[in-house]
Amino acid sequence: xxxxxxxxxxxxxxxxxxxxxxxxxxxxxxxxxxxxxxxxxxxxxxxxxxxxxxxxxxxxxxxxxxxxxxxxxxxxxxxxxxxxxxxxxxxxxxxxxxxxxxxxxxxxxxxxxxxxxxxxxxxxxxxxxxxxxxxxxxxxxxxxxxxxxxxxxxxxxxxxxxxxxxxxxxxxxxxxxxxxxxxxxxxxxxxxxxxxxxxxxxxxxxxxxxxxxxxxxxxxxxxxxxxxxxxxxxxxxxxxxxxxxxxxxxxxxxxxxxxxxxxxxxxxxxxxxxxxxxxxxxxxxxxxxxxxxxxxxxxxxxxxxxxxxxxxxxxxxxxxxxxxxxxxxxxxxxxxxxxxxxxxxxxxxxxxxxxxxxxxxxxxxxxxxxxxxxxxxxxxxxxxxxxxxxxxxxxxxxxxxxxxxxxxxxxxxxxxxxxxxxxxxxxxxxxxxxxxxxxxxxxxxxxxxxxxxxxxxx
Length: 458
Ligand SMILES: Cc1cc2nc3c(=O)[nH]c(=O)nc-3n(C[C@H](O)[C@H](O)[C@H](O)COP(=O)(O)OP(=O)(O)OC[C@H]3O[C@@H](n4cnc5c(N)ncnc54)[C@H](O)[C@@H]3O)c2cc1C
Prior knowledge:
Blueprint: E1 7-12, H1 16-29, E2 35-41, E3 45-47, H2 52-56, E4 66-68, H3 69-72, E5 77-80, E6 82-87, E7 92-96, E8 103-107, E9 110-113, E10 118-119, H4 125-130, E11 132-133, H5 137-156, H6 160-166, E12 168-172, H7 176-195, E13 206-210, H8 222-234, E14 238-240, E15 245-249, E16 252-255, E17 260-262, E18 265-268, E19 272-273, H9 276-279, E20 285-286, E21 289-291, E22 297-298, E23 301-306, E24 311-312, H10 326-345, E25 359-363, E26 369-373, E27 376-379, H11 380-394, H12 398-413, H13 440-457
Bound molecules: flavin-adenine dinucleotide (FAD).
Flavin-adenine dinucleotide (FAD) binds at residues 13-18, 40-43, 49-50, 52-53, 82-83, 114-116, 134-135, 176-177, 180, 275, 277, 308-309, 324-327, 329, 362.
């Protein structure tokens, strides 16, 4: 029940940044009725994005990495809705209910903007049309379904060039999402071929990572990025550095270096952009993001805070912006919550955000990873194990931790699950020769022709 004297905190976005601020505030204000917290998110769950590549490779199930937001909202009111506009001057936010499009206006005393980013195709409509993305649960399931279809068709394809095209996966973008995705899918495809698809020539599997720079995983720094580069190459992945994908069709990717790669699967992870609700805000922006000062407040708006992928926060040591990672979002949330509580209580000891990395890591396939923890570099199985343990601990709720741990154990003991639970859109018949297999149209056409021939003979 809302009382007029309550202080209203409104959190927009229930990703890493939003829910970790929420948890900090809940633990402080759980018995304080003068504080009302509201969370708005367009999905009714929090998605643990670092495990999306494992969902695409069938190592874990969707329910293991999606946590209903109502499970973490003990005191907080949760509203499933899309934020459609923010008026910083009048302290009002318009939200739209996805079910029926009804709009509601929320007022706030303190606002936390944590709406993350969306995929950036840099205006390239062809790539947008033909590429998969890996940002949502539907994306990851879509990739897995598509790849199993490609394996099924490739197993009946006798033409080596066409089999290779079906088994070529091009991932564009060499940040966390791109590297972890190619590593996982490489193992998924190769394990599945070994176990089930005996007509496929493993030589025809081509896994390709396209990077715009000469490095991969820039978020992890030069040394670890170099190790990751070598590990991917050792796993049989071709890395094409200093190159951009500039065009794509249903069965090819065209690169800036002039190379055309015939392929039926392209996954785009090369850019993050910010929702137009954020870019249209009447405040300072950098690279489309909202500029937040070192206290994580918006300049000129003392009661508005921003963090995570949607916020531009300057690293005073390098002069650049902090990278968009879950680890930054989580660390920012601690400082932001402290500063927000100070602002509410009128205390002056607000803290500045300064990211000192305690460690960085990434997994690059089954039982392979790279990590730097307290200055010590790890690679291979130890790094992979540290990644698994860290992210297992980070998962909210014991139930989800247990589900993920069970999935990892079961799926590493048994062969991959290649059950096709969804159908995909049929591709043009010209793309497959599939000896002895034709489309229904071709079969019907031939039977009509042969009926005509039979009739003419009579
Ligand atoms: C495949 C993949 C792998 C990754 N691996 C790693 C990794 O290993 N390590 C790492 O540190 N980082 C990793 N990242 C990056 C990490 O996921 C992000 O940096 C992190 O999620 C940022 O947190 P956030 O809260 O700012 O944004 P998000 O987690 O994206 O949350 C934003 C939330 O806001 C909601 N939202 C957005 N717009 C609206 C709107 N208009 N109305 C209502 N709600 C809205 C979204 O639904 C979402 O719930 C990975 C990312 C991907 C995609």
